[in-house]
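Curious: can you check?
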Amino acid sequence: MSRYIDQFVRNEEERLRVEKVERLAAKFVERAARHDEEASFPFDNFADLREAGYLKLTVPAEYGGDGIDLHGLVLLQERLAYGDGSTALAVGWHVGQVFHYRESGKWQQKLFAELCRSVVRDGTMINTFASEASTGSPSRGGRPETIAVRSDGGWRLTGRKTFSTLSPILDRFVVSAYIPEEAAVSEFLVMKSENVTLVETWNSLGMRATGSHDVILDGAFVPSEHRIAGGGIDDGSGWLLHIPACYMGIALAARDYALEFARTYQPNYTDKPIASFPAVQASIGEMELALRSARTVLFAAADRWDKEPDNRPALKPELGLAKHVTTNNAIRVVDLAMRIVGGSSLSRSLPLERYYRDVRAGLHNPPMDGTVIQNLASSALSDGVSS
C-alpha cells in the first residue's frame, strides 16, 4: 500500500475494509454520471452497500455490527466518496447518526437496540430531518415550525422538512418538532405512513443524487415510546467528520484525474507531457499542499476524538477546524485540478465538472464556516482564563 491515499491506513483490518470499499467505489463511479444527470436516487448503490455490510459499520458489536472508530469511519467515507460523492454523503448521514447514538447514548436503550438489530438484519437506515425553509439550518438554533401535539398513546406531528437526505429510501426517520404545551423542542422517531408525503424538490447544482427532498408530515402519529429521551452525554459531535471526509474523497479523485492527465497529455508543440512544465508542476505542488495539509488535520482530529473520550466536548473547536480546513482545501484542490486539465475540464462528459459542483456543497453542511470561526475565537479568548 504505497499510494499516498493509503497513508492513514493503520492495520490489516483497515486495509481489508478499504479494499472492499474501493471495489464499491469502482462500481459507483460507473453510475455516478447518470444519477447526477437525472438527479435520481442511487438505489442500486445502496443495495450494494447493504450487501457489503457497509450500513452496519458503526452499529455496536453487541448487536452484530462492526463498531468501528471515528478514524475508521473517516477513512472509509473518504474512499467511498472517491467513487461517488452523493452516495458517500447520503450514507454518511446514516452511519454517522448511528455512530452518534452509540457514543452519546441519547436514545433510550431499548429503542436503540431495536434500530441496531434492524440495521443488521434488514438493512434499515436512519437520518434526522431538522431543516425547514423558515428556520434555515438547525445548527443556527432556529425553532422548528413542525408541531407535536399530544394524542392518545403518543403524538401527532405536522410540518414540512427540507434537505431530507435519504428520504426516498427510508422507512423511518427522526424529526425535530416544537411542543407548544411544554414550550420545548424534542425529537421523535417517525415511521413512514399515509400521513407522511415525499415531495421531490431536490434539483441542486451539486450532490444531485442524495435524495434530499422535502418531507411533509400531516398529523403523522408517533407512539409515546418513540419520543427520543434526549439524555446521554455530549460526544462533541465527532461523527460530523463524515462530512469533510466525503469532500476530501472528491478532492482526491480530482487530484488523481489531473495527475494522470498531466502525465499523459502531450500537445503537438512539445515532445514531453505537460507534467514536465514548471507551471503545471507548481499547480500540482499547490494541490498537494492543500490536500495533504487538510488530510493531516482531518485524521489528527479523528484520532484525538477516539483517544480522548473524556475530553470530547472540549474538542469541538478542533473538530470544526478540521471541517473548515478540509472542505475549503478540497475546493481549492478541485479548482487547481481543473486549471491543470484546462478547458476540457468543463466538459459534461468528464468527471471533473461534477467534482467541481459536488465539492462546493460542503460549504453548506454543518458546522458552517462562520460558526467554526466564532467557536475558535471564543476558545482563544477563554484560553488561560480562570473560571
